[in-house]
TrEMBL record:
Keywords: Membrane, Transferase, Transmembrane, Transmembrane helix. The chain crosses the membrane at residues 20-39. This is Colanic acid biosynthesis acetyltransferase. InterPro entries: Hexapeptide_acetyltransf, Trimer_LpxA-like_sf.
Length: 182
């Protein structure tokens, strides 16, 4: 589901830019420099700025979130240190998900076939029980299926299959994931 945007669309209007400016200030004052163990505090701050996030989730203080109102995070999920959540488009993270350190989630791109290169908002969905390992890149319009594992430094540009392990650039399925009775 790609949605073309232009610089006159609501995502780029003055009130949105003002909101993101206030968010940036709040991020540095209340979020970024909060002690690591204050997970509920950071979830609360994200809720204040429009995120739909469980207070049982963990977001580390060095995680960067472009627009909290475009973020949905389920219970017992973790957004690790130095994760870049570039969510011009929506990003939905399910329950019991681990997004490991240094991961980059990018929910937008540009239409390179159009000479004006308009922005395309491309949601990312991460289902339950997914583990995205360190320094991985999850590209626009990607659906990470239930229980999949994305290996360290993998680049995922296509949807994954449930309970599978992916690795490489571009990421390919390398085996099935066996967890409990699955």
């Amino acid at each position: 589901m790609l949605k073309k945007q232009s610089l006159t669309d609501p995502i780029f209007n003055f009130s949105n830019k003002l909101f993101r400016s206030v968010w940036t200030i709040a991020y540095f004052i209340f979020f970024r420099f909060s002690p690591v163990f204050l997970f509920k505090w950071r979830c609360f701050i994200l809720k204040v700025f429009g995120a739909k996030i469980s207070l049982d989730s963990r977001v580390y203080p060095t995680a960067k979130i472009w627009l909290p109102s475009n973020l949905i995070v389920g219970a017992y999920s973790t957004i690790g240190p130095n994760v870049n959540v570039y969510n011009q488009g929506k990003i939905v993270i399910g329950e019991q998900v681990i997004i490991s350190q240094g991961t980059h989630l990018c929910a937008s791109t540009h239409d390179y076939n159009d000479p004006l290169h308009p922005l395309l908002l491309c949601p990312i969905t991460v289902e339950d029980n997914v583990w995205v390992c360190a320094d991985a890149f999850i590209g626009p319009n990607v659906y990470l299926s239930d229980g999949c594992v994305v290996g360290a430094r993998a680049v995922v540009m296509k949807n994954t299959k449930p309970w599978s392990v992916y690795s490489g650039n571009p990421a390919v399925k390398i085996k099935d994931r066996v967890w409990g009775d699955k």
